[in-house]
Design brief:
This protein has 388 residues and is of the alpha/beta class. The protein has a domain of 236 residues: FAD/NAD(P)-binding domain. The two termini are 15 Å apart. The strands form four sheets. An eight-stranded mixed β-sheet has the order 6-5-14-15-16-13-18-17. Helix content is 32%, strand content 25%.
């Protein structure tokens, strides 16, 4: 890209920070503008897909990432009542970090990963501004200007909307396009490992599947805590965010009749967050002039593949690579979209299909080969090797 003007990244989530790191390593100027007033710890556990870790290897930070993560094992799927193994293999790991060299899926705490990425960005001199809620943008042939609610503004060569499922950038580019409630909600909570220990005999990680329900649990933070997520198909309309709480009784009712390990973990739950799940209709394009989208802002998807974070991270790397390779901004953004839209649209559809398979009315009819997670070509994709 032939300019000294910075790339403006809106959003300091995983995709935005990855893009910032990759841009800075490529010698491009970059600024990150985050709406929150501070970069506080939010989030729960996440599955870190193999494609994301190939990106981190390319950026030189995979060992740091692996140090706060742990191998995910063979992702065992279990019958919701009797814990019969339906897919994968028992996970006998101890929850400790490895060296990050192996090409495997890992689990980590989102806040820990964000901390690693912030530190990497700051080492490269990336400015991260907080309290910058985007309210407007304008662009011409030479630059784009972002305007924020605090009265400030920023000018750059490109603006990247990495600001999540309710993206302000997407709303400005494509007004009237709202997130879709998917009639699913997630109950998310943590249990200290010593309290969870009586309910962990089936291994470090397990995914219980049953009628219109999924319960996923695994250790993280060096095995010190168990992350739990109960996904429920429902007619109840629920908002999203970290402000909606639920009681243990409500979650226990949602999983009545499930395996004793599931109910035992629910009994030990700390504060429970109730989160409505929303996705986005795939867009025919992500870019308008010098403005583009990445991550959930472009392609929010259901969590049944655990692929949302990885897609944002892959996007961030690919965008930076395209801007590095192409002298003209709009050509670079077209190249980025051409590389990323087919993959993210495929994962969007596969995530929905994975939910249909794993929340089947009768898990006794579950056929592993029908599960998108079994697709090695997709789940083992290396975005760095594929290039843009």
């Amino acid at each position: 890209m032939r300019t000294n003007d910075p790339v403006l990244v809106i959003g300091a989530g995983l995709g935005g920070l990855t893009a910032a790191i990759a841009l800075a390593r490529a010698g491009l100027s970059v600024e990150v503008h985050e709406a929150a007033s501070e970069l506080r710890e939010t989030g729960a556990g996440l599955t870190l897909g193999r494609g994301a870790q190939h990106v981190f290897r390319d950026l030189g930070i995979q060992r740091e990432v692996a140090a706060i993560a742990c191998p995910a094992g063979a992702l065992p799927f279990l019958h919701y009542q009797n814990a019969r193994l339906l897919m994968g293999a028992p996970d006998r790991g101890d929850g400790r970090a490895d060296d990050g060299v192996s090409d495997i899926v890992r689990h980590c705490y989102r806040a820990d990963l964000q901390t690693v990425l912030i530190a990497a960005a700051e080492r490269l001199g990336v400015a991260i501004q907080t309290g910058r809620r985007l309210i407007g943008l304008e662009q011409n042939a030479g630059k784009v200007i972002a305007r924020f609610a605090d009265g400030s503004s920023a000018s750059g060569s490109v603006l990247v909307g990495a600001d999540g499922v309710r993206s302000a950038v997407r709303a400005l580019l494509f007004p009237g396009d709202e997130p879709r409630y998917t009639n699913h909600l997630a109950y998310r909570f943590l249990v200290p490992a010593d309290q969870a220990e009586p309910f962990m005999a089936l291994g470090r990680s397990a995914i219980f599947i049953g009628p219109k329900r999924t319960f996923n649990r695994y250790t993280m933070a060096g095995g010190k805590v168990v992350n739990c997520a109960g996904l429920v198909e429902t007619d109840e309309v629920v908002g999203e965010g970290w402000s909606i709480s639920a009681s243990r009784d409500e979650v226990a009712r949602a999983f009545a009749g499930w395996h004793p390990d599931v109910l035992g973990l629910i009994e030990q739950a700390g504060p429970i967050i109730k989160w409505g799940l929303y996705d986005r209709t795939p867009l025919p394009r992500w870019s308008v002039g010098r403005v583009t989208l990445l991550g959930d802002a472009a392609h929010a998807m259901l969590p049944f593949l655990g692929a949302g974070a990885a897609m944002a991270i892959e996007d961030g790397w690919a965008l930076a690579r395209a801007l590095q390779l192409e002298p003209e901004v709009e050509t670079a953004l077209a190249r980025y979209e051409a590389a990323r839209r087919p993959r993210t649209e495929l994962l969007h559809a596969m995530s929905k299909r994975q939910g249909e398979v794993t929340q089947a009315i009768n898990p006794d009819t579950f056929v592993p080969s029908t599960a998108p997670l079994s697709n090695e070509a997709v789940m083992g994709f290396n975005p760095v090797e594929a290039g843009v």
